[in-house]
Amino acid sequence: MSATSPVQALAENTERRHMTDSQKFRPVYGVKDQRWSLLDLLERFADETFVSEGVLRISDLHLRPGKPPHYRFDGELIPLPGGSDLDDDTVKTLIAPILREGALERLESGEDIDASW
């Protein structure tokens, strides 16, 4: 990948590729004129576009109500271009399939949770 800025690189690559419609990973999040699932959001981590000299330039996905999803890109938090602001219900629906037991209850009580693998 050339010296493309993080914002430009993310903006150029907002096609929904996973296209899952499973009950577990429902496409509920609005990006431009599409609906994305958590798998669609995570798809970017497997995208060769974001690899430079063998190093993945994109890492963490941050989901916080009131803001669009953010990715850590070259160490900087960058919002998903075209992404709408998340609400509480959308965040819960997106991450519920991957949470450990009790984590959703902690989230609903106002705690931050780390759903990293």
What does it look like?
This protein is α+β, with helices and mostly antiparallel strands. The protein has one domain (6-108): 2-Layer Sandwich (Beta-Lactamase), CATH 3.30.450. The chain has 4 helices and 7 strands. The chain has helices at residues 6-11, 38-42, 88-95, 103-108; strands spanning 29-31, 34-36, 51-52, 55-56, 58-62, 70-73, 76-79. It has a 3-stranded antiparallel beta sheet with strand order 5-6-7. The protein has a two-stranded antiparallel sheet with strand order 1-2. Strands 3-4 form a two-stranded antiparallel sheet. A hairpin with a 2-residue loop joins strand 1 and strand 2. The longest helix is centred in the last third of the chain and has 8 residues, at 88-95. It is globular. The two termini are 26 Å apart. The mean pLDDT is 83.
Q: What is the overall pLDDT average?
A: 83
Helix and strand run = HEEHEEEEEHH
What fraction, in percent, of the residue positions are helical? 10-25%
Q: Kindly, what is the distance between the CA atoms of the first and last residues, rounded to a whole number of angstroms?
A: 26 Å
Q: Sheet with the most strands?
A: 3 strands, antiparallel
Structural class: alpha+beta
Low-confidence stretches: none
Measured by DSSP, the beta-strand proportion falls in 15-25%
Spatial order of the strands forming the largest sheet: 5-6-7
Number of helices: 4
Please tally the β strands and state the result.
7
Shape: globular
Class, according to the CATH hierarchy?
A: Alpha Beta
Give the second-level CATH assignment, the architecture.
2-Layer Sandwich
Domain tally: 1
Radius of gyration: 14 Å
CATH topology: Beta-Lactamase
